[in-house]
Design a protein that fits this description.
Elements: H1 5-19, E1 26-31, H2 38-49, E2 53-55, H3 56-65, H4 69-79, H5 86-96, E3 105-109, H6 115-128, E4 134-139, H7 142-150, E5 152-155, E6 161-163, E7 182-183, H8 190-204, H9 206-213, E8 217-221, H10 226-239
Parallel strand pairs: 1-3, 1-4, 2-3, 4-8
Antiparallel strand pairs: 5-6, 5-7
Helix pairs in contact: 2-10, 3-4, 5-6, 7-8
The structure holds adenosine-5'-diphosphate (2 copies) and zinc ion (ZN).
Residues 155, 157-158, 160, 175, 177-178, 180 line the site of zinc ion.
Amino acid sequence: MPINKASLLVLESFVRQREGKGGRKLRLIFLGPPGSGKGTQASRLSQRFGIPQISTGDILREAVANKTEMGIKAKESMDNGELVSDDVIIGIICDRIVQTDCENGFILDGFPRTIVQAESFDKMIGEKNIPIDIVLSLDVSEEMVVRRLCGRTVCKECKTNYHLEFNPPKKKGVCSNCGGKLYHRPDDEEDVVRRRLKIYKETTEPLIGYYQQKGLLSVIDGTNEIENIFKQLVGVLEGI
Ligand code: ADP
Ligand code: ADP
Ligand code: ZN
């Protein structure tokens, strides 16, 4: 059967994507405070390497919007900037990483966020024999993160992140990627942001030491421009 031009382009792009890392599987975790750029970079790397971005925040927001049982339970914690219970989050990840699109790897954005989650995850991937290749920690100051979150807007449809000042869409209020409507997350108001940062410091930051001890940690300066960080990350990932 003759292969049409569109399929050929898809195939070529797939081969290009896999070439850089010799067709190996790539599994990575993003660490960093809220607003450090995890979602922005994870989304770009997902396209670059052809592996899914798994954002527990996006999965939870979808559940809240659809008023599922999980969404109804999670909503209050999310609105208040508090963490959703470990059991719920571990359940989400356990179901998600066994889906077929994760066969060549995945990018975790926003998980794990507690030591309990990290330990359960280690057990899970140990049993399934799917080791993590690298943990990328984006380093950004607290004040910068507050500025970023207070100006963040997100596409309702494709979840692409923008920033009014640092990463504006081509047309105000409209997603440059899909034309969807942009909105400001209610938990990105300054008082909730400060609470999220406090929880990050107390509960999530210890994961940096946890993964450092395992020899998996790579710290990246998250204050550079989006494109520069992306290039640096691609370099790191192609080198592992
Ligand atoms: P951010 O943009 O700050 O990184 P997310 O979109 O990842 O935020 O998360 C939004 C909210 O969803 C969190 O404040 C928390 O309530 C909940 N959440 C997301 N991931 C987790 C997780 N791994 N553990 C507990 N709660 C989570
Ligand atoms: P996280 O997923 O870690 O919460 P995001 O990727 O959503 O963070 O980024 C938070 C906000 O900061 C968004 O509005 C995004 O457009 C902007 N942003 C992300 N990376 C950078 C960067 N390197 N420089 C300036 N602004 C950035
Ligand atoms: Zn969009």
